[in-house]
Design goal:
By secondary structure, the chain is of the alpha/beta class. 44% of the residues lie in helices and 17% in strands. The model has no long low-confidence stretch (mean pLDDT 97). The chain binds the ligand Nc1nc2c(c(=O)[nH]1)N[C@@H](CN(C=O)c1ccc(C(=O)N[C@@H](CCC(=O)O)C(=O)O)cc1)CN2. One of its GO terms (molecular function) is methylenetetrahydrofolate dehydrogenase (NADP+) activity.
């Protein structure tokens, strides 16, 4: 029976430490990290995530700025808002909630955010920094996955990792982070031949495809560590519920450790967003990132 990796608990501890460091930063340097979150449209899941981001930022005593724009907002209006936030010294981190409606070019919007305020780590400058081993901002979900992995496994050197999914938000940065930890990394996707066999070879399996329960237990190598990034809303027996990309009930019998959905990777995403905002504030003021928070994240 697999160990359940409790991301919710880990994220709560990390957020509490971030909150302590925010107070210290304010007392010692008169700096309050500021997070601006922009939501375009009324997607119900996005509304929940944005509300949770703003609430958790306030709980950590950060300054939280929320902008809600109508579904049909012209792209230029969104770009104007980003320009204003780029220039606002009270805002250290800017996040545009994805997905965006079709009239908005997501790439243009992401590229308009000042790289040092891009706390999502999606700007090409930060993507390039990650690829070349720099110290730019790392996207929140892969960062959270890596913290859970390192906490559970310690040294990852030499392990075979399979990343299922090749999105810019999760799959690609996750593969880069695993490579940085000396894993042997494979990225699998919808055109991969022999997906089940690829999965069975993996000591670490990251599932990030957005397909409910796509990975059954018999695709998992006995003892493997499974990180389930999927957050799929399904209806079962007349009830709405959240499930991952992995079939948890069968996987739990084979895996060595597994993240649940909900309560695994999801809460880490927001904790890492707050961490990235705190780091951005420190850097913008020429201050070191507090050691305590790094210890809480990685220790
Ligand atoms: N600009 C961004 N947009 C999106 C990102 C992102 O990192 N940056 N990621 C996802 C959504 N996301 C954050 O925005 C996110 C998803 C899930 C959770 C979470 O806490 N999930 C809970 C369940 C919550 C629920 O009941 O729905 C869990 O898994 O336990 C947090 C953040 C896409 N967009």
């Amino acid at each position: 029976m697999a160990t359940i990796i409790d991301g919710k608990h880990y994220a709560e501890r990390l957020r509490a430490e971030i909150g302590r460091q925010v107070v210290q930063l304010r007392e010692a340097h008169l700096v309050t990290p500021g997070l601006a979150v922009i939501l375009v449209g009324e997607d119900p899941a996005s509304q929940v995530y944005v509300r949770n981001k703003a609430r958790q930022a306030r709980e950590a005593t950060m300054a939280s700025f929320e902008y809600r724009l109508p579904h049909g907002v012209p792209q230029e209006k969104l770009l104007e808002l980003i320009e204003r936030l780029n220039a606002d010294p009270a805002v250290h981190g800017i996040l545009v909630q994805l997905p965006l409606p079709p009239q908005v070019d997501a790439e243009r919007v992401i590229n308009a955010i000042r790289p040092d305020k891009d706390i999502d780590g999606f700007h090409p400058v930060n993507v390039g920094s990650l690829a070349t081993g720099g110290d730019g901002t790392v996207p929140c979900t892969p960062l959270g996955c890596m913290m859970l992995l390192k906490h559970h496994l310690g040294d990852l050197s030499g392990l075979r990792a399979l990343v299922l999914g090749r999105s810019n938000i999760v799959g690609k940065p996750m593969a880069t982070l695993l490579l940085r930890e000396n894993c042997t990394v494979t990225i699998a996707h919808s055109k991969t031949v022999g997906l089940d066999e690829e999965c069975r070879r993996a000591d670490i399996l990251i599932a990030a495809v957005g397909r409910p329960r796509m990975v059954p237990g018999d695709w998992i190598k006995p003892g493997a560590t499974v990180i389930d990034v999927g957050i799929n809303r399904i209806e079962e027996n007349g009830k709405a519920r959240l499930v991952g990309d992995v079939d948890f009930d069968s996987a739990v019998a084979t895996a060595g450790a597994i993240t649940p959905v909900p309560g695994g990777v999801g809460p880490m995403t927001i904790a890492c967003l707050l961490l990235n905002t705190l780091e951005a504030a420190c850097r913008q003021h020429g201050l070191p990132v507090p050691a305590g928070v790094m210890e809480a994240a990685w220790g």
